[in-house]
Amino acid sequence: MIKLEITSTNIKDNYAISVEDIDFDSGDLKQTSNIRPNRLFTADTQIILYRVGRIKKEKLTQVVEKVIEIIKG
């Protein structure tokens, strides 16, 4: 399973995508955060403790497009 880093740290790079409560179909974050599409990693589903929420399709599309842009260089 491929995952992306989400951090509440204020990130100032060309890759960070801001995510707020309005970007979720369900669940929420305690504060505005950043999705880091340049920080891909794999994770076994057994180490995931819980799901915070589900991101809306529009925001997910934005993230996928950024990952593709990074890969294409």
User: Which stretches are low in confidence, meaning pLDDT under 50 for 5 or more residues running?
Assistant: none
Helix/strand-derived category reads alpha+beta
Spatial strand arrangement across the major sheet: 1-4-2
Number of domains: 1
The arrangement of helices and strands along the chain is EEEEEH
Give the radius of gyration. Answer: 12 Å
Determine the fraction of residues in helical runs and give it as a percent range.
10-25%
Describe what you observe in this structure:
The structure is a single chain. By secondary structure, the protein is an alpha+beta fold. Helices cover 22% and strands 36% of the residues. The protein has one helix at 57-72, and strands at residues 2-7, 17-19, 24-27, 33-42, 53-55. Strands 1-4-2 form a three-stranded antiparallel sheet. Strands 3-5 form a two-stranded antiparallel ribbon.
Labels describing this entry:
alpha+beta; three-stranded antiparallel beta sheet; 73 residues
Break the fold down into its secondary structure elements and pairings.
Blueprint: E1 2-7, E2 17-19, E3 24-27, E4 33-42, E5 53-55, H1 57-72
Antiparallel strand pairs: 1-4, 2-4, 3-5
Give me a quick take on this structure.
The chain has 73 residues and is an alpha+beta fold.
